[in-house]
Each structure stands twice: as C-alpha cells, then as structure tokens.
Design a protein that fits this description.
With 485 residues, the protein is mainly α. Helix content is 67%, strand content 4%. The protein has one domain. The protein is built from 23 helices and four strands. Strands 1-4 form a two-stranded antiparallel ribbon. A two-stranded antiparallel sheet has the order 2-3. The longest helix has 29 residues.
Length: 485
Amino acid sequence: MGAIESVAAYFGFEEHNTDYRTEALAGLTTFLAMAYIIVVNPAILSDAIVIEGYDQGEVFQMLAIVTIIASIVATAVMAFYANRPFGLAPGMGLNAFFTYTVVIVLGVPWELALAAVFVEGIIFIALTAVGAREYIIELFPEPVKFAVGAGIGIFLLFLGLQEMDLVVPYVDADGLPSGTLVELGNAIQSPVAALSVVGLGFTFFLYARGIRGSIVIGILTTAIAGWALTLLGIVRPGVLTPDGAYEDIANEGLLSLLLSVQYDVTPLFWGFVDGLGMIGDDPLVFALVVFTFFFVDFFDTAGTLIGVAQFGGFLDDDGNLPDIDEPLMADAVGTTVGAMIGTSTVTTYIESSTGVEEGGRTGFTALVVAVLFSIALVTVPIMQAIPQYATYLALVVVGIIMLQGVADIDWEDPVWLISSGLTITIMPLTASIANGIAAGIISYPLLKTAIGDARDVSFGQWVLAITFVCYFVAYFATEAGVVTF
C-alpha cells in the first residue's frame, strides 16, 4: 500500500465516501471562513496585553503568531486523534470576556488571566479523559440537540449580515438608538453592503448550480473585487480593504512586511509563568474567572459540536455524536497550550460547518486547516489583507443551509416546540450558543412536568437545569454589583 492509499485508509475515506479533492476543498473553505481570527483575536487581546519594551504593533504580531500556533495544535489533535472535520482557534466572545471584563473591568492582570485559562484547560483535559464531559452532553434533552444546528445557522446568518452592513443598528434622525434594534443596511450608501450583495448573489448562483467550491470562489472573488475597486481609485483605501492594509503594502512593500513579523513570543510565555505565581494573591477572583471561562466554553463547544455534527449527518438516532470525547479533547489541549503561549480559550469553530457543507467528513479536512494555518505563519500580512466581509459570505450561505435542521424537530409536541424554539431563537438574539442551550435545558423539565411527564426527566437533567439557573443568578448579581469581589 502506497503513502497516498495509507493516508486515505487512516482517515477512512472509503468509509465516509470521500476523497482527497473533496477533503482538501473542505479544509480550504473552513480555513478561509475562520481566517479572520488571525487578525481579530490579536486586535482584541492587545487592548489588554501590554509588555514592557514592546510597542503595541509588536504585541499585535506576537498575538497573531500565538493565535495561529494554538489553532494548529488544536486542529491537528482534531485531525489525528478525533478524525473529525472541525477547525479550532481562540474563541470569539471568550477573548472579549478575557480582555474587557476580566482584565479591564475586574482589573485582573493579563498574566493571571492566562493562568486562569490554563487551569480551565487542565480541568477540561481531566474531565474529558474520564468521560465526564461526554456524560453531561448526553444529558442534553433531545429537543435541544436537534435544535442546536438551526440555532447556529441563524446565528451565523445574523453575524454575516452584520459584517456585510446588510443588517445595521437602527437609529433615528438624531442618530440615537430607537424603535427596533436593527434595520436593513443601505446598499446604495455603503460600498461594503453593495459589494457584499453582489458577492452573495454570485455565491448563491454558483451553489444553486451545484458548482463544487462555490463558497471559496465567492470569498476570493469578492475579496479580489474589493481590492480592485480600491486600486482603481473607485473607493478610498480602508473601505473595501482592511484598515491600514493598503497603506502598509504601499509604503513598505509586501516583501518587507512579510519579513518584519515579530516571531519571538517568549514575552507572552514568561507573562503566563508570572501569572501562575499570582494565583494565591486573590484566589476568590481567580476561581470566579476560571469558572466563567469553563462554563461558557463548555456549552459553547458542546453546542458547536452537536450543531455541526447534525449538519454533517454524524449524530446517532439519539442525537449524540459518537466518541465525542475525542473532539472535546482537541479543544482542551488547544486551550491549555494556547494559554501557555499567550492566548485566550481555544474552541471548536462554527465556521467548520462551511467545510462540512463542501463535503468534509474526516480528519483530513482538519489537517488541511492546520496546514493552512501553518502557511499563515509566514504570510500574516497577506491574511490581514483579506476583507472580513468577504469571509463572512460563507457564514450567510451556510447559515441558510443549516436551517434545514428544523425538519428533525417534532413541532406537534409542545415540549419540543417550546424547548427547540427557545434554543433556536435565543442563540442569535443574545449572540451566545451557550445561552440558547441554557434556555432549552431550563425549559425542558418544566414543560415535561407541565404535561404530566416529569418521570421522563432524568435526575441529571434536573441538576443541569438548576445549575444553569444558579449560574445566571450569580452572573447577573455580579453584573449588577450586588455581589462584588
């Protein structure tokens, strides 16, 4: 057996009815859909991380490098250990919590915050190794499991439309928030919205025609069009191109930019080491931070895995993902390694659904994602040049496709109707997968009791629902200042 056949056999191409071309295209699609994190994660974390002797530009590049490294490690574990087509990277939302809540609002040193993420990762590894995370996820009620995919779909759709300026905040004539929270963006006034509409229409056309790689083609075509319109002087730099990208290339040259990346990330590592020594200074705040990171990451990751797995047809008849402990281990290892080198919690990305839509079914898709992240290590400035609205085309397309998951829900059953409906709607409306899952889990035992089927609710499901209630009470009490640390 040759090397090519051995690799195909290792990843189970025949079993999953796939091939190299399909898996490679799926990996490229997933990477392009989530590559924005290379720029966005350091942009957020650099607001909190200040290193003596380095300017913020150098810190930004350090954080871009560690974002890539953490993504490579976690996605490689997903590829070789879990053999699932999912990409991982530092999670959005959790990086904002790290920066703006933990470091800036609570005043926790960024070094100590990294130590908290590290401890969370160690806890995840331990719980995954003994099967505890798999057990908890299997407690999710069936209506929640089958609704997660559609909820994530609407969440993706909403995020994409916002980034394209097609859904914008609603303001009155004085520029103040009023009436409904959002409205339709003006594609006549906004070049981003106008180009996004054209790119989205082109992508939908290719998809409807059954052209393989339609999402990748749509992303690249839209990005190239944005740069072309800028270079031709039709729109000014920074409108259809990322802020500063045009000026950096024009002033320094692409080769110079490629050679100027700050690859020395040891200051971040030593900051993490210093953070470990700070744990005893305020253990109560540290425990609170660890718990919050743990709780939100746990249910975000669980929801993403179930939702994308449902989309790809990986779930069994009970709505469970077989051997889910293996992909869970990937994010646990990624989080632990990521904290050590200087980034926030690593999680499975909902953008993985774009690759699944392109036919990705095995860990080879994840391997391609990891390889592309490796290439990005030497092409950071090029990654920074891809407009974010172009990559979000994938989220809109896949978000709409994922709505087909509602067909698996028994809408005639009031328990399914309400639990599933809450799960689906709360996710996009609160911008949180975990909140959507919480709404479904909390409502399920109450609804079962209401119709006289309380015996169908397991003890573990009651505990899970009560735990969520306690979490939200503690969270809102802290937000309101009722509880202070």
